[in-house]
């Protein structure tokens, strides 16, 4: 990413941001910017801000800049950063929190990855596992409708070879009620946060 200069005026900064984001604010503030988290991260190369840069932006309170970047959406939750951080900072959990915050503030709508997450949970909740065609239909419908056209040929080829099924009901697991119970419990826990 090209070098970016921030005008750190009071209007741009949210001093409460670090409190809201980090599971342990005090620890996050002890980040020494060593870059071990970034060096350990398999997806840092594709992020708008590397994990190390992200922690600094959070410390400064640049809430909008953080929530509108793609970094946390690309986190695969591999925990390498967390296990190697010399300060014991809960980097991965912080990435989870950023995802939740971006969704609840509406900022996430700018990122296709957020739509993919939504499509994924929608189809898993309905069937207990992934139905590929439904997943991609929901995803394209939410985000990139025109891009769906370029995948039509691939979809047809896969269907002809029996690699994907159009029968959504056919993929249902036996105890769908248990899956629904898991989702309800997760929603209940989310409300308590
Ligand atoms: S590894 Fe830990 S201390 Fe080092 S930059 Fe990352 S978060 Fe900060
Ligand atoms: S948990 Fe996320 S941020 Fe940390 S190293 Fe893995 S992908 Fe990168």
Please name the defining characteristics of this protein.
2 domains; binds iron/sulfur cluster; mainly alpha; Fumarate Reductase Iron-sulfur Protein, Chain B, domain 2; 193 residues
CATH homologous superfamily identity of the largest domain: Alpha-helical ferredoxin
**What percentage of the residues does DSSP assign to strands (E)?**
under 5%
Domain count: 2
Number of β-strand runs: 0
- The CATH class of the largest domain: Mainly Alpha
Please write the string of helix (H) and strand (E) elements: HHHHHHHHHHH
Molecular shape: globular
- Low-pLDDT parts are none
- Bin the helical content: 55-70%
Q: What distance lies between the first and last C-alpha atoms, to the nearest angstrom? A: 34 Å
* Integer-rounded radius of gyration: 20 Å
Largest sheet: none
Mean pLDDT: 88
Q: Which structural category fits the helices and strands? A: mainly alpha
Give an overview of the whole structure.
There is one protein chain. This protein is mainly α and 193 residues long. The protein folds into 2 domains: 10-106, Alpha-helical ferredoxin (Fumarate Reductase Iron-sulfur Protein, Chain B, domain 2, Orthogonal Bundle); 112-192, no CATH class. Helix content is 55%, strand content 0%. The protein has helices at 17-21, 25-28, 36-40, 51-60, 63-67, 80-84, 91-105, 112-127, 132-142, 147-160, 176-192. Helix 8 (112-127) packs antiparallel against helix 9 (132-142) and helix 8 crosses helix 11. 22% of the residues are buried. The model has no long low-confidence stretch (mean pLDDT 88). It binds iron/sulfur cluster (2 copies). One iron/sulfur cluster binds at residues 31-37, 52, 55, 85-87, 89, 91.
């Amino acid at each position: 990413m090209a070098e970016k200069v921030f005008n750190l005026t009071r209007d741009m900064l949210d001093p409460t941001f670090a409190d809201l984001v980090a599971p342990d604010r005090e620890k996050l503030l002890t980040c020494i910017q060593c870059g071990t988290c970034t060096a350990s991260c398999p997806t840092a190369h594709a992020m708008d801000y590397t994990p190390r840069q992200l922690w600094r932006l959070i410390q400064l309170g640049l809430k909008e800049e953080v929530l509108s970047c793609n970094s946390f959406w690309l986190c695969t939750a591999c925990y390498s950063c967390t296990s190697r951080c010399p300060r014991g900072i809960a980097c991965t959990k912080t990435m989870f929190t950023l995802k939740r915050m971006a969704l609840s503030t509406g900022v996430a709508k700018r990122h296709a990855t957020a739509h993919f997450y939504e499509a994924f949970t929608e189809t898993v909740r309905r069937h207990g596992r992934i139905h590929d065609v439904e997943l991609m239909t929901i995803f394209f419908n939410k985000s990139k409708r025109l891009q769906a056209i370029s995948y039509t040929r691939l979809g047809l080829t896969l269907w002809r070879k029996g690699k994907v099924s159009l029968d959504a009901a056919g993929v249902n697991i036996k105890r769908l009620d248990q899956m629904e119970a898991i989702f309800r419990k997760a929603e209940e826990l989310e409300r308590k946060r």
